[in-house]
Amino acid sequence: MTASDDAEPAPAPQELSDRDRALLALERRSWAGPGAKERAIREELGISPVRYYQLLNALIEDERALREDPVTVNRLRRLRAARRERR
After folding, report:
1. For the segment 67-78, what is each residue's pLDDT rounded down to a tens digit?
2. pTM for the whole thing?
3. For the segment 44-64, what is each residue's pLDDT rounded down to a tens digit?
4. 87 near 70, Cβ under 8 Å?
5. Element (H, E) at 77
6. E-strand stretches of 6-85
7. Cβ-based burial of 73 (10 A; exposed 0-12, middle 13-18, buried ≥19)
């Protein structure tokens, strides 16, 4: 048995990773005050808010994410499109 045999299997191509699911779950929540979301990103995901938004922007282009959580992904796509139109 090699070390790679002990590794957790990679998700099938049609499935999201646990991290991707965690990103969507965090994005579904509502936030009470300023800084609460950024704090949750650091504490729950262990990444910086900048990295979180980089990952999230890539994730909302993924059709697997759309199948997993269409309400959240479509909301995020609409928000992004609205921001682009304002520029």
Report:
1. 999 999 999 999
2. 0.78
3. 999 999 999 999 999 999 999
4. no
5. helix 70-86
6. none
7. buried
